[in-house]
Write a structure and sequence with these properties.
heterodimer; A: 228 residues; mainly alpha; two-stranded antiparallel ribbon; 4% strand; B: 88 residues; F1FO ATP Synthase; rod-shaped
Chain lengths: 228, 88
């Protein structure tokens, strides 16, 4: 029961787990909220618009600090990761809802997204030939290490988020079992901090991986595409 | 004692020891990292932004070692693949 992996209901032969339902619910809520907010933007903003603009500006500042030239290209992806993982991590504070990031399939999917987006941004910005060349860049001997590094850092991303979220939930549950009803409240406060920190770290690492794929190449090859 | 209770005993002891020993190295490393970061922060307070960002990333990397330990221990405790041989 602790993880969301058991099937909630069946769609034909396909088992739909709690994780999937929660993920889609969070996605629907995020889309709905952002749609409602953006549909009446004004020059003279209300408190809600100011709050959302503040979040977006903070994210944009963090992205452009690491990738000053390409901030606008990478910003939507990293901002989505940050907002989604933050909300998903915090969602387990709601009674009866398990955080989707406490399920290793969900975090693995997010990590695979990061893995493929590194290649996507790398190839899109520097071109396929230059991108592939960086795998054998100092010497071809390093090719296996590059490949191992790609795989292990993806695994590490997934396992880090999963382990943190699952262990937090499990720790709160164990304290509840051992101590009683109100004892886990300090742990839940720790949960809020930890959830935001883990979301920050996941997005930041994704950003750094993407920046690594782009910048090492940019330093070596003068770019053919300068418009963005 | 039956083999299954030996198994339970062994996996419990191994799990506790693995957690205890596995936390030591990451704790040392995190302490060292924070210590060095604070030292350089005291010397160059204007580098606070990039310093704290790098510190966060580094701490996350170190922390994931302890998390790996926890995940392996949980696998040993709850989903031990070797249990099949015993139950067959």
């Amino acid at each position: 029961m602790l993880d969301g992996t058991h099937a909630l209901f069946y769609l034909g032969p396909l088992a739909v787990s709690t994780t999937v339902v929660t993920t889609w619910g969070i996605m629907a809520i995020l889309i709905l909220v952002s749609w409602v907010i953006t549909c009446r933007l004004s020059i003279d903003p209300g408190p809600l618009q100011i709050a959302v603009e503040g979040i977006i500006q903070a994210i944009h500042a963090a992205v452009s600090e690491i990738l000053p030239q390409r901030a606008d290209t990478v910003f939507p992806f990293v901002a989505t990761l940050w907002v989604f993982i933050g909300v998903a991590n915090l969602s387990s504070l709601v009674p009866g809802i398990h955080s989707p990031t406490g399920d290793i399939s969900a975090t693995m999917a997010l990590a695979l997204l990061v893995f493929s987006s590194v290649h996507w941004f790398g190839i899109r910005i520097v071109g396929l030939r230059h991108y592939l060349k960086h795998y054998i860049s100092p010497s071809p001997i390093l090719l296996p290490f590059h490949i191992i590094g790609e795989v292990t850092r993806t695994m590490a991303l997934a396992v880090r988020l999963f382990g943190n979220m699952m262990s937090l939930e499990m720790a709160a549950l164990l304290v509840l079992l051992v101590a009683g009803l109100f004892a886990p409240i300090p742990l839940l406060m720790l949960h809020i901090v930890e959830a935001l920190v883990q979301a920050y770290i996941f997005g930041m690492l994704a950003l750094i991986y993407i920046a690594g794929a782009i910048q090492t190449l940019e330093a070596r090859h003068p770019l053919k595409e300068e418009e963005s | 004692m039956t083999p299954i209770s030996w198994f339970v005993l062994a996996s419990t002891i191994v799990a506790l020891f693995a957690m205890a020993v596995g936390i030591i190295a990451p704790a040392n490393a995190m302490g060292k990292a924070i210590c060095t970061a604070l030292e350089s922060l005291a010397r160059q307070p204007e580098a606070e932004k990039s310093l704290s960002r790098t510190l966060f990333i580094g701490l996350a990397m170190i922390e994931s070692l302890a998390i790996y330990c926890l995940v392996v221990v949980l696998i040993v405790l709850f989903r031990n693949p070797l249990l099949e041989y015993l139950l067959k």
